[in-house]
Amino acid sequence: MNNPICRRGFLRQSTAVCAVSLIPGRLLAASNDPADAGLDFPLMDLHVHLDNSTIDKVLELPAARSVKFGIVEHAGTKENKYPVVLSNDAELKARNAMLEGRPVYKGIQAEWTDWMGCFSREALAQLDYVLTDTMTFPGKNGQRVKLWEPGVEQRIDMADQQGFMDRYVDWHVEIITKQPIDLLANVSWLPTPLANEYDKFWTPQRVKKVLDAAVKYQVAIEISSSFKLPQLSFLKAAKAAGVKFAFGSNGRYPNMGKLDHSVQMAKTLGLTKSDMFTPAPDGQKAAQRRRY
Ligand SMILES: [Zn+2]
User: Fold this and answer.
1) Taking a C-beta distance cutoff of 8 angstroms, is the pair 184, 229 a contact?
2) Secondary structure string (H, E, C) spanning the chain
3) I need a labelling partner for 73 at 20 to 30 A (CA). Which of 111, 120, 152, 200 fits?
4) Which residues, in sequence order, are bridge partners of residue 222?
5) Span 208-223, mean pLDDT?
6) Rounded average pLDDT over 199-209
7) CB neighbours (10 Å) of residue 193?
8) How far is ligand 1, taken at its centre, from the CA of residue 268, in Å?
9) Rounded to the nearest whole angstrom, what is the distance from the C-alpha of residue 194 to the centroid of ligand 1?
10) How far is the CA of 24 from the centre of ligand 1 (A)?
């Protein structure tokens, strides 16, 4: 498996596909064929960050030949701390101009609850989609707290873990209900104090609350290859509820497009093209159809 094409992550388990890929003249056709991954839809990684890289370098990666990338940048007020945070129309349009003409989707990873106030509807409508997650949560003083940072128990009341979990589920529902988002990423991720007991905290009732909101507001659920989340029980409930899915690596260079886990879950669930989110046409994007 030393051939670089055979080492493409999502093909790793399929020596048969590698053999096909090595037939002279079939290389390009094989690498652009969604059937390579054993699925009936083209592969898209809609959660790609350009941190520490450039669009040119990212598009030179082998994965870019077989996976369409959706580039997201953190977006919201400057209170959100990331390497880059787009905070107004001018910054958003400059980022979009940088990606113009490239074979990628243009998205943002929206932050907190106040990001919509940073941009005009017209600027948001120029995006292909808006993605967000629930991993920044109100602390004891109401301030935004990144749940993945050390010492989170001191800043957020988690002594009653089930009580925290109820508030966390409500937070998911609030974000889905109030924000014009197309896609929820990192779904069902749990902070360290709870992470080892997924089934204890993601009860069917809690999963249903999140999924009911996702269905009602047409928000797709990311199958994250980086976090390997949501777990299968959650995903099965999501499929039964009729939620749309998207794949995401949350990849920083050179790890974008590594979708092994997402592909594996799609096969396990039997997902087909009609189960998958694709960026909506003009007029039907969340930023255009939602009131906020
Ligand atoms: Zn991200």
Assistant:
1) no
2) CCCCCCCCHHHCCCHHHHHHHHCCCCHHHHHCCHHHHCCCCCEEEEEECCCCCCHHHHHHCHHHHCEEEEEEEEECCCCCCCCCCECCHHHHHHHHHHHCCCCCEEEEEECCCCHHHHCCHHHHHCCCEEEECCCEEECCCCCEEECCCCCHHHHCCCCCHHHHHHHHHHHHHHHHHHCCCCEECCCCCCCCCCCCCHHHHCCHHHHHHHHHHHHHCCCEEEEECCCCECCHHHHHHHHHHCCCEEEECCECCCCCCCCHHHHHHHHHHCCCHHHECCCCCCCCCHHHHCCC
3) 152
4) 246
5) 98
6) 98
7) 15
8) 25
9) 21
10) 38
Task: For the beta carbon of residue 29, count every other beta carbon within 10 angstroms.
Answer: 12
Q: Is the pLDDT of residue 291 over 90?
A: yes
Residue 27 alpha carbon to ligand 1 centre in Å: 32
Give the distance (Å) from ligand 1 centre to CA of residue 25.
Answer: 37
Residues 84-118: pLDDT tens digits? 999 999 999 999 999 999 999 999 999 999 999 99
Side-chain half-sphere exposure of 225, counting CA atoms within 13 A: 26
192 Cβ contact partners less than 8 Å away, ≥ 6 residues apart: 148, 152
Distance 56 CA to ligand 1 centre (A): 19
pTM for this one? 0.88
CB atoms within 10 A of CB 139: 16
Mean pLDDT of 184-200: 97
What is the C-alpha to C-alpha distance for residues 167 and 200, in angstroms, rounded to an integer? 15
Specify the pLDDT at position 38: 87
| Residue given tokens 């999924």 in the structure block | 211
Task: Tell me how far the alpha carbon of residue 22 lies from the centroid of ligand 1, in angstroms.
Answer: 34
State the distance from the centre of ligand 1 to the C-alpha of 209, rounded, in angstroms.
Answer: 24
- Could you identify the residue written with the tokens 């924000």? 179
